[in-house]
Sequence to fold (413 residues):
Amino acid sequence: MKRLTNKHIVLGVTGSIAAYKSADLVRKLVAAGAEVRVIMTPSATEFITPLTMQAVSGNPVHQALLDEEAEAGMGHIQLARWADLVLIAPASADSLSRLVHGRGDTLLGAVCLAASSPLAVAPAMNQAMWKDPATQENVATLKERGLHVLGPAEGEQACGDTGPGRMLEPDDLAREVETLFDTGTLAGVKVMVTAGPTQEAIDPVRFISNRSSGKMGYALAEAAAEAGAEVLLISGPTSLQTPDRVQRVDVRSAEQMYDAVHSDVEGYNIFIGAAAVADYRPIEAKASKIKKDSDTMSLEMGKTEDILASVSALKHRPYMVGFAAETDELEANARKKLEAKRLDIVAANQVGEDAEGKPLGFESDENTLTVFWQGGSEAFPYMSKSQLARALIELIASRYRNEHNIIRPESFG
Ligand code: C5P
Fold:
């Protein structure tokens, strides 16, 4: 899997001659696995056409804020929610000034205000404009607010000057973007994640399973790796790719998952049980294919071992995170699970549809989660599973550090 797979990037293109490089930047981001949606300001379209940006991104280009049709499709709020990162490249002197003042009178400005994702800018302007105290103050203010300022580079400029103000080259920008997702909040921490369904054999060709896609567990493994953790993913059968920097062990049945977990769990600091482990399995898997001779058949099933509870019961147990998929009484059932399995955190999700009819849970790409721990809770609204995973990993990291009195290094700010 590539470094930017599953990452949604909103690329803002503003009015600077460096805009001609934005098309190449999109290609580099897409090649690294990202999905890119481009917003162009009116002056950006003087330098490069929306058609070019549409062709390289594979998505329609967004331009107008007050456009009924556009807002009915993917409007500024949806774009802001969709984004895992908003990157403005090139960012003109004017666009930096607008950001500082929180102007919301353009689509790009409104998306920047509405986005809760990280924001990054790649300044590009004449060297004198860059050195101007107003620009320098603007950049300092943006940095203080946590915005990532990528570049600028020094060198020959389109206007004939030489000095600082060139946009970073697309290759360098794409590499910088990859590292923006690396938070470092779990550096030096070992995390084990279970994911996917299990398959319980009935005979050599049939099994009992469930509708888990494994998406949430894989997204968590990916987010933990991005946070700097050493991650072992123990996975039931899925069609998903192994996330970058994650080690994966494949299993089929609940019993195999149990064995794989216990053969390795010692020394792990955090255990995240995101697998949908079968609760029961046929007591006896037949050695040969069962014939359809009779009109009815019955299977005798026995309970599987609860992997999560068994890890929780270990003497040197890791920090324990479990999931609760519930159809009703979300909080009460989740809190029961927290107690019964002696978990530190339980992430509960409603299975089915939400009030607006959006699919929730197993097979969907989006979900909501409410996370409970002793004496507290936090609700994460409807978002993509990879955004949810990053939010959940940040919560786990901060609660884990709290409990273990680990001071967060300054550099992680
Ligand atoms: O009890 P329930 O199956 O609802 O609990 C769900 C949580 O327990 C999930 O975190 C799941 O990964 C874990 N679990 C497990 N082993 C089982 C059953 C559930 O690890 N046999």
Q: What stands out?
A: Residues 194, 254, 273-275, 277, 279, 304, 306-308, 322-324, 337 surround cytidine-5'-monophosphate (CB under 6 Å). The first strand starts at residue 8 and ends at 13.
